[in-house]
């Protein structure tokens, strides 16, 4: 018993000393703000172009979002069989088109034959955009060149161990380099490995989001009072307001990110009350399916 008591005492003393030393450790210096984040906050991003208003990831959605004066588009990308980067969320085309099968099994030409307005339903349960000429697959290259003045938040969906995921980084870099759009894009992914691979591929000053592991590590250090050890590499955290019952939208956590010039962004926020709550707490970016509501709130808040 005495042996165990001594071990507990030693462990307690070590914890106390380490906590004191860490608390005295100088906080990390604030990051340099990338050009992507030098606009006036808050940013309102249309999630997949505003998927409750128009068929997601189509020019119909993006052009409609542009008329609302959004600050940016939040999009997902996938790779085709012939190495084209297309704007699409799912690994398959089944949910959003009249086609079927994995995106990576299709060429761009084959995807261009599909109707991506086919399954969209409006509030009346009707299909107003079936066979619409702008309800087609969109390439990342076309999106960047069509909207050169709108920020694009690019989420890499193909996992690093998949055939598409192993090839998409080079293909993505080539598209951005060809358009010289390095200041227009933000590179994000749930996969920390994909973000790291793009960082290693690019020698340009590109804005990056945090992957799941970096978010989890940073929030854990913050929550256990070890925040002085949290050296955040990302320029933004694009995160849900809640994760398994844990609030990631705590005002103090938002302030902590801001203190390091890390932009706190939240998805997918469709309630005007939650939008207002997050903006009042200092959220930098709101990603929403309803950019019409969010932009109305932003305009009213600035008056």
Oligomerization state = single chain
Ends distance:
68 Å
Radius of gyration: 22 Å
The global form is globular
Task: Name the features.
alpha/beta, two-stranded antiparallel sheet, disordered N terminus, 37% helix, globular, 10 helices, single chain, 11 strands, 303 residues
Strand and helix map with partners:
Layout: H1 2-24, E1 43-47, H2 59-67, E2 72-79, E3 85-87, H3 108-111, H4 140-146, E4 151-156, H5 163-179, E5 185-188, H6 192-201, E6 207-208, H7 212-223, E7 236-240, E8 242-243, E9 246-247, H8 251-259, E10 263-267, H9 272-281, E11 285-288, H10 291-302
Helix pairs in contact: 4-5, 5-6
Would you give an account of this structure?
This protein is of the alpha/beta class and 303 residues long. It has helices at residues 2-24, 59-67, 108-111, 140-146, 163-179, 192-201, 212-223, 251-259, 272-281, 291-302; strands at residues 43-47, 72-79, 85-87, 151-156, 185-188, 207-208, 236-240, 242-243, 246-247, 263-267, 285-288. The strands form 2 sheets. Strands 1, 2, 3, 4, 5, 6, 7, 10 and 11 form a 9-stranded mixed sheet that branches. Helix 4 packs parallel to helix 5 (163-179). The protein starts with a helix and ends with a helix. Mean pLDDT is 91; it is low at 1-24.
